[in-house]
Amino acid sequence: MPWSEALGRGASALLSPSWFAIVISALFAIGLPLLVHLLFYRPGSAPGLPTFLVVGPSGSGKTALVTYLQNGTAAATHTSQTPLPIEVTLPQDVRTGSSQYRSVNDPTLEARKRFMVLDTPGHGKLRSVASEHLAHPDNLKGIIFVVDAADLSASGPADQTRGGLREAAEYLYDLLLRLQRIMNGGKSSRRPKAIPVLIAANKQDLFTALPAPLVKTALEGEMTQIRESRSKGLLDVGTSQGATAVNEDENDWLGDPDEKQFRFTQMSEVNVSVEILGGQVLGSDGADAKQWWQWIGAQM
Known about the structure:
The structure is a single chain. Helix content is about 40%, strand content about 10%. It is α/β, with parallel strands linked by helices.
């Protein structure tokens, strides 16, 4: 039978100790693993780089931080008027959360260290830029809220030191409230993915800067007062317009409605984690952003 004879001869040729059989076997043994590696571990296979949104009041040091993350040094900056996307690479000594159990010799590790930071304007009239990006958080891995830790003292005249605390607290309140609405406003039963928030207590090199634990206390206290004042305004509106107005605006209450004091831990109920870490990108002693780098890496 011609076909059976041809198959038999082909099988004999492959199994015989000939150079042809050796070359074919070697190509198969080497080529198959390479093909699998290229298909499943290509750096360019991801739809987009992980992105971190950098927000905060004007003068808090957002652009200086973004410049430092990109170049390792913080140059003189100016007030941002438009969003500025910049590609950044994690330092060699910082590993990503997704690469925790990967070998240090894995060739894809370098590609996994790349991410984008988006510096947004801090002026009150331009903060809508950040809200627009929150509406489409496809590649968003976290939000970095930068505050000037030397401008958060709750003491002093209301128009001086307390003004910085009030501005930062109001911006942060609106940001977290926006995230809370996103998490609670999904049409499906499945809640949107978690969005971690880092409060970067910047300018720790200054003598008047509050350490991270006191920054947390100051912001929580001020945001509690903001929540109380806004809830009174809603109550007054509800009294004049009926109970329906209060029900329509019940989502304006940030955090746990059963708790008198606002705490950042209450945001975990809507899948938003908040962490406060201190650091600096300027100063006579140089930059100290190690904790911020590690937080960024953990989210990737």
